[in-house]
User: Which sequence fits this backbone?
């Protein structure tokens, strides 16, 4: 095997990578959106690569995983059509009324709905839908919304790990490793189910006092009607069709983005009164721009062979004990994802794992441990996932509006409740990884 020597192009690309990641991870300090730093890093690595001869415009274009970009864009547009129908609001209020003032039951019902929706829609979208509804319901009942808000974020983070389309890092991993929808859910479903049940049980004890409060009459919660039943039920039918197509996409030789594009196209024609321009305004273009720039930057660092150099350094651990390496990766990914954004970390790890595969290593368990780590690790802190940040933000706004500081979810409170959840799910996942390691080492492609 050719010996890799750390050279100038590796050093410069490593500096650009580190500087960009620092800018992204300290977004809350300097106030610049992370997409701006990703763009800056992409531009820097492209210009440097062109000057030093290791990266080109064509290679930068090829580095972008367009499957991820189009899939995210289409799914966000579908959600933008569904939200104004009132269907999600009707669902949340219906579950609150069904619980009849039994707070833990209400937490379980809302948490279950959030988890199920997170299997197909990304975590941020799910909490954006349910966050304001939870606050409205809690204020009507005269109870603290904190347990329900945190449950929504924690369970959406956990549930999103289960499917290929449930979390952006999953999309990146699945696309890079050519993992089908079925293969992903078959391997991630069992550990996520165990973790999800554990989270529900843990929340009962972590919020024992809050859930023991006596609420106001549950009948004061007003029902919210579905304002556009045709679009809502059509959307549900299309999501069901998309789920089937996701499950057979390898058989019919479709990329996942093609499934989402078909679903969006049908929904546009079925909802003839929907204004396309107004709907597209709701799509988070900054997130898509962030992904494109990040792919370009990581592609440049990969072409400098710096990531290959890092892979060579960890090769001895992987070859000597693959199980240990997988569990170590899971925990490292979780700890880093609790402290920083999990998307850049996933983007950096993917080419390293692909590099190990070229050395003849069975990297299947590394893909699964990475997915579990970045997903479960997001529960640890208030900045561990974008869903967490949103929940904290709306809780702080509620505290200002009501003049009650107890309504705000502080970083300390999140760590007090979220860290035990993170460690609990990681321990359970590690046990399952150890017990069923042969299952996780099965080939993932196809």
Assistant:
């Amino acid at each position: 095997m050719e010996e890799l020597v750390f050279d100038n192009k590796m050093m410069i690309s490593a500096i650009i990578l580190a500087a960009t990641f620092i800018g992204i991870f300290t977004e809350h300090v300097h106030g610049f959106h992370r997409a701006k730093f990703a763009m800056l890093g992409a531009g820097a690595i492209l210009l440097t690569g062109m000057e030093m001869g290791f990266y080109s415009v064509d290679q930068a274009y090829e580095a972008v995983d367009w499957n991820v970009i189009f899939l995210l864009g289409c799914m966000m547009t579908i959600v933008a059509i569904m939200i104004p129908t009132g269907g999600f609001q009707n669902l949340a209020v219906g579950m609150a009324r069904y619980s009849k003032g039994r707070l833990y039951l209400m937490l379980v019902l809302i948490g279950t709905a959030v988890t199920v929706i997170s299997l197909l829609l990304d975590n941020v979208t799910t909490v954006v839908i349910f966050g304001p509804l939870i606050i409205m319901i809690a204020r009507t009942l005269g109870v603290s919304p904190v347990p329900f808000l945190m449950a929504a974020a924690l369970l959406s983070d956990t549930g999103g790990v289960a499917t290929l389309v449930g979390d952006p890092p999953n999309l990146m991993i699945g696309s890079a490793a050519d993992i089908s929808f079925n293969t992903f859910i078959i391997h991630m479903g069992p550990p996520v189910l165990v973790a999800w049940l554990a989270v529900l049980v843990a929340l009962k004890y972590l919020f024992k006092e809050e859930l023991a409060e006596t609420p106001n009459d549950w009948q004061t919660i007003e029902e919210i009607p579905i304002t556009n039943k045709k679009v809502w039920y059509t959307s549900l039918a299309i999501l069901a069709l998309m789920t089937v197509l996701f499950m057979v996409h390898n058989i019919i030789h479709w990329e996942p983005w093609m499934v989402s594009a078909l679903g969006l196209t049908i929904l546009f024609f079925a909802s003839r009164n929907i204004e396309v321009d107004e709907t597209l305004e709701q799509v988070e273009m900054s997130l898509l721009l962030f992904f494109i720039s990040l792919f370009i930057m990581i592609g440049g660092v990969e072409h400098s062979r710096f990531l290959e150099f890092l892979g060579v350094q960890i090769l001895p651990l992987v070859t000597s004990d693959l199980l240990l390496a997988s569990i170590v990766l899971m925990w490292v990914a979780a700890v880093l994802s609790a402290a920083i954004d999990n998307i850049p970390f996933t983007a950096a790890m993917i080419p390293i794992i692909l590099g190990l595969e070229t050395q003849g290593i069975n990297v299947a368990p590394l893909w699964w441990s990475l997915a579990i780590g970045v997903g479960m690790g997001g529960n640890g802190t208030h900045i561990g996932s974008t869903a967490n940040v949103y929940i904290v933000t709306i809780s702080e706004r509620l505290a200002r509006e009501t003049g009650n500081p107890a309504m705000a979810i502080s970083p300390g409170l999140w760590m007090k409740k979220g860290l035990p959840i993170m460690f609990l799910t990681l321990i359970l996942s590690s046990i399952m990884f150890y017990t069923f390691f042969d299952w996780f080492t099965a080939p993932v492609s196809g």
Observations:
- The mean pLDDT is 87.
- Residues 181-206 form the longest helix (26 residues).
- The two ends are 29 Å apart (CA to CA).
